[in-house]
């Protein structure tokens, strides 16, 4: 296992971040969602490497194999951890890919570090721009729902994660897009996270307002979201971020849940490879979801916001 040391600018505490670094070519940094780890990206890694890209993924502090400090789960500190990965691996011309909670580090990197060394950004099922329902964010998630998540984790963390996983992947009576074994696998990954990090990160991704961060994204961005996402509804996320990010392409996965990296794995890989290598993500019909990764000609363009 490889590790990168990040130093907390507030406490001075050194934190070891577990990571992997495979392939050659333009670097892609994959930032995982809550409450998983870098292992969630296994179905995208091969496709990206086979497309001639260098793929780096790391475990957020408190998750996976990274250190588990008591403090430092605010987005400024988490983004400083991302910066440590970029600097210590001396990466340039980077594509940042953030899934769900990971979209927060992507967006915050542009206000905290000006997007330095980054050439493209991708938000997948992302919490950007703002989760919490407020007077000026009426489509957000009510505070009592967030309180319910916190209470559920405190009462029975593993039981909560078990139920959460089913909603995460859109499992219900009429739909079972993942196997029982896979549900157990992802629950195991989530269960490995620090209980403290699990709770603190709920607060961070729920209460942090990324609207100014989104407007600061100064590179082409790709936004991908499932319209059946019950974890992060598109009304409060992709539909809003696409209005704020200056240059972006927003793709809706009809009928898809939150966990696109698994339920729509090949379709997602197609869009990532196409966007990173050509600058535009190709529209791929749902019937192509089980096909191998291809690079068809461009037919969807970036939208520039006034």
TrEMBL record:
Question: What superkingdom heads the lineage?
Answer: Bacteria
Q: Does the keyword Hydrolase apply?
A: yes
> Keyword Cytoplasm: yes or no?
no
Q: Which InterPro entries match?
A: AB_hydrolase, AB_hydrolase_1, AB_hydrolase_fold, Epox_hydrolase-like
Keyword set for this entry?
A: Hydrolase
Location of the AB hydrolase-1 domain: 26-263
For this chain, one GO molecular function annotation is: hydrolase activity
Family, according to the entry, reads as follows:
Belongs to the AB hydrolase superfamily. Bacterial non-heme haloperoxidase / perhydrolase family.
PANTHER family from the UniProt entry = HYDROLASE, ALPHA/BETA FOLD FAMILY PROTEIN, NON-HEME CHLOROPEROXIDASE-RELATED
Protein name, please? Alpha/beta hydrolase
């Amino acid at each position: 296992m490889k590790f990168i040391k990040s130093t907390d600018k507030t406490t001075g505490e050194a934190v070891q971040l577990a990571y992997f670094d495979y392939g050659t070519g333009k670097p892609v940094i994959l930032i995982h969602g809550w409450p998983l780890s870098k292992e969630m990206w296994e179905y995208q890694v091969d496709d990206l490497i086979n497309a001639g890209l260098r793929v780096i993924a790391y475990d957020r502090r408190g998750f996976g194999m990274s250190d588990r400090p008591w403090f430092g789960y605010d987005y400024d500190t988490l983004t400083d951890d991302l910066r440590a990965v970029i600097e210590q691996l001396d990466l340039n011309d980077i594509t940042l890919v953030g899934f769900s909670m990971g979209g927060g580090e992507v967006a915050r990197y542009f206000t905290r570090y000006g997007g330095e060394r980054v050439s493209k950004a991708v938000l997948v099922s992302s919490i950007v721009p703002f989760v919490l329902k407020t007077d000026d964010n009426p489509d957000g998630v009510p505070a009592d729902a967030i309180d319910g998540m916190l209470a559920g984790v405190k009462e029975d963390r593993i039981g909560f994660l078990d139920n959460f996983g089913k909603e995460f992947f859109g499992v219900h009576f009429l739909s079972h897009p993942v196997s029982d074994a896979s549900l157990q696998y992802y629950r195991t990954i989530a269960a490995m996270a620090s209980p403290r990090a699990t709770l603190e990160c709920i607060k961070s991704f729920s209460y942090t307002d990324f609207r100014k961060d989104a407007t600061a994204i100064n590179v082409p961005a790709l936004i991908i979201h499932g319209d059946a996402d019950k974890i992060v509804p598109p009304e409060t996320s992709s539909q809003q971020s696409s209005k704020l990010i200056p240059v972006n392409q927003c793709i809706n996965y009809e009928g898809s849940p939150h966990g696109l990296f698994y339920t729509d794995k090949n379709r997602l890989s197609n869009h990532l490879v196409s966007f990173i290598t050509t600058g535009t993500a190709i529209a791929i019909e749902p019937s192509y979801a089980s096909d191998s990764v291809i690079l068809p000609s461009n037919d969807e363009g970036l939208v520039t916001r006034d």
